[in-house]
Structure formats: structure tokens, C-alpha cells
Amino acid sequence: MKKIIRAIAFILILAVAMMGTYKVLSWKDTSGDYLSSTQQLYATQDNLMDVVFLGSSHVYCGVNPAVLWEEHGISAFDMAVSGQDRDSTFHTLKEVLKTQSPQVVCVDLYGLLYEKQDILGNVYRNMLSMKTSANSVELVHDYVEKEDRMDYILRWPIIHTRYQELTKYDFISNEPSVYGRGFVPTYEFGESYYPEEALACTDAAPLDENARVWLDEFIQLSDEEGFELVAFLAPMYLDGTDQRILNGAYEYLGGFGIEVIDFNKLSAQLKLDYQKDFCDNSHLNRFGADKLTAYFGNYLTETYDLADHRGDSAYAMWDENSDWVAHQDFAYELKKVKEWDKYIEKVATYDEDMIVILSFDGIYKESTLNLQTAADAFGIPKEQYELGGKWIFEDGECVYYMDSTVTKPYTRELSEFNTLWMEHNASSLDQIQINGEAHGCAYNGLTVIVYDKITHRVVDKKGFF
């Protein structure tokens, strides 16, 4: 009897250990930087998504659910994964439908233009991010070659090597991978090109069998689950060969009365700037995404009877997501500010969910910038400014002041994985550290460090002399 109990205990301990190890090593990224639309899906309560967008990076770069939420109260979600192929798109939708009942599903047709993904990491993002189930196994069987299927089904043969690349987000949830709505804002500018050749192409190539079956699967699922199916193509550079394939799909879908929106044909209406609204020739940046999403917002509200959920606490994730996107915008805008006084003004007035550290060191009062105006912007008393030191402002309020006579270091947990350490030492730029990384910027002047409590990152730091 004791041997049986020991055996059972051993099996239970092994199972718990394996589960814990798998949680750490498991794939947690669908779009880069430990952002996972799949984790966001699983974190969302049942039946909250009214509109779902499916596709690859063209979708998570181009459709901003925060705009749909703020302008119309639409609870939209980008169920998008880098390099999402046709098989992955269909099975990802089936995964969504396990817990959600969207009124409208919008599918990007870019997947018609390629059979397999070129990047192994994208294969992993699509094959390994879903929970193991009959659906995920079907996806592996549909996409992966027979000799490799068991590796993807078991997952351990692939993920066990990840120990070399583990980061803190393998042990602690990346918060945007919970409340985020699939969008990945990009603030880079890259030149794209007007798809003149594609738009001049009006003839259609016959659909191949795989493409026809893929479209039929969506049409059938739409009938079975009762959602409206919309097909679209995000703006991107294409040639005539690609356009012929798409034209064939447009004709086929039109035969079923399914709406198709080719945004390349709407570039003038969207007022797309091919030098300012793209991050490369195939992906919209944050600014282009707003233009495309504004069109979608008007189209969806004019075409379908969608509820406005703003103010409903059940949809708090959409409010959190909007705050997160707004903070991403603030970080981008702050780094663009060149004039020191405007920089201080922007930091001092944008105080929600921000921690700002000010440090006046050395002969700061001799600066030609008149740094007293920075102290005034934050409401620092003149007598404190005259003494110098360090101030911590949280949500616009001063929560700590260390004058130049304090010798004892100060520490504070900014988050569960970020620790602030400070001491007064005007001759060292190491006097302000976060997780051991020095953030001092000025020996004889003002250091400003802006820490975002939503993104848990240093937004910016600057020194003024």
C-alpha cells in the first residue's frame, strides 16, 4: 500500500513540476515583444467581442480597436498573428468561437497569396500559441508535414530549448497580453508605393482548389454560427499577379453576397500618404491604422446594428486597452519634443499613471536655461529648489523629496519586477537606478526620468544643463 501511495505522490509531484515548467517554457508571443493576441483572447470573458478581425501582421498593424471603442463603443478584437496562414486563420476563428459570439467577422484575404510561412518563428506563433485541444491538433494536421506533426502536438520537443531565451515575461504575465485587444502600434516611417500595377489589373485568375475550400469553410462557418462575414485586404504594395488571384476571390465571394473591401482601391478616400502612413511597403503605421480604422468604424455602424458598450463595466478591458494605446502615443510624442521648456510642460501636464523623477544636481542654478521654471511647472517650492535634491511625482502629486543633505539611499518597488534605487551623489550618474541600470543624465543640471505605470517602462529620460 505504501508503495502505491509513493507512486501516486511521485506522479502528482512530477505532473505539477511539468506543468510549472511548461508554463515557463511555453510560447507566449504572436506579434513580438511578448504580446500575445491568443493570451488576450483567453483572458476575455465570454461573449464580449462583437467584431473580430482575422489575419496576419497587416491586421494587427492596421486595425486599431481602441479607435472603434472610443468613437463608437464597438467591442472589436484583432485575432491576428504574425504570418497567419490560411489554415491558422480558420482554426484561430474556431478557437474564438469557443467563447465568443461575434456579430461580424472580418477576414483579411492576404493569406490567399501564399501557401506556407517563410519564417519559422511565425510557424511557432501560429501552431504553439493556442491551448492544446482537438482544434489545435487539427491545425497541426492541416499545416505541418506528417513527419513533424508529433513535435508540434506534444510541443515539448520544440519549446524545451527556450531556456536560453527566457525573460521576465516567461515568469510574469505581460499585462498588455491580458487586456490588449490585439493591436500593435508602430510609430516607424517607411516608404511604400502606390500599387498602380495591381489596381490596373481587372482580370481574374481562377481560384485554386485550396483557396476555394478555404473560403467555403468560412462561408459554412458563418452560416452555422450566425455571424456576418466580411472580406477585406489591408493596404499594401501588390503586383498584377497577386491582384488576379484576389480578383478571383472577390468574384467568388460576390456570388455568395459577401462584402469585400479592397483598401488599395480606397487609398484616395482614406487619404493615405505612402511616405507617412506606412512603416514599410506592406504595413500601416499608427497613423495609417487610424485612417483605415476610421473607415471600418463608419462602415460597421452604418451596415450593422452594433451596441455601444461604453460605460459598461463588463467591457473594462477595452478601456484599459485604450489607456495603453494612449500611453504608447504619449511616449512617441514626448520623444519628438526638442524644446526643453515644452518638454517640461508636456511631462508636467500628462500626469495620469506616470511617475516622474526630477533631480537637480551640482551647479544647476548657473544653467542658462533658468531651470527654476521647471521647478515651477511641477509646483516645487522655491526653498526646496534652492536646496536641490530629488523629487518623485506620481499621478501629478509629489510623493517623495530627498534634499541634498540626505545620506541614506531610497528604494521603492515601481512594479513587481522594477525597483527604483536613489541616493544623493551629484558627482555620479549612477545615483538613480532602476533594476541596477543607471538613469542619471546631468552632473550639473536637471535630470528628468519619466516612468509609465501602465507599460512598466522608462518612457524617456533627459538631462538639461
* Overall 3D shape: globular
Structural class computed from helices and strand pairing: alpha/beta
Number of helices: 19
What separation lies between the terminal Cα atoms? Answer: 77 Å
Rg from Cα: 26 Å
Walkthrough of the structure:
The protein is of the alpha/beta class and 465 residues long. It has 19 helices and 14 strands. It has helices at 2-25, 37-43, 57-62, 65-72, 86-96, 120-128, 134-143, 149-154, 156-159, 176-179, 196-200, 209-225, 240-254, 267-270, 286-303, 316-336, 340-349, 372-377, 382-387, and strands at residues 51-55, 76-80, 104-108, 228-233, 259-262, 354-360, 389-394, 397-403, 410-415, 418-422, 432-434, 437-438, 446-452, 457-464. The strands form three sheets. A five-stranded parallel beta sheet has the order 2-1-3-4-5, sandwiched between helices. A hairpin with a 2-residue loop joins strand 11 (432-434) and strand 12. Helix 4 (65-72) packs across helix 15, helix 4 (65-72) crosses helix 16 (316-336) and helix 5 (86-96) packs antiparallel against helix 7. The longest helix has 24 residues, at 2-25. The protein is globular and about 75 Å long. The N and C termini lie far apart (77 Å). The mean pLDDT is 95.
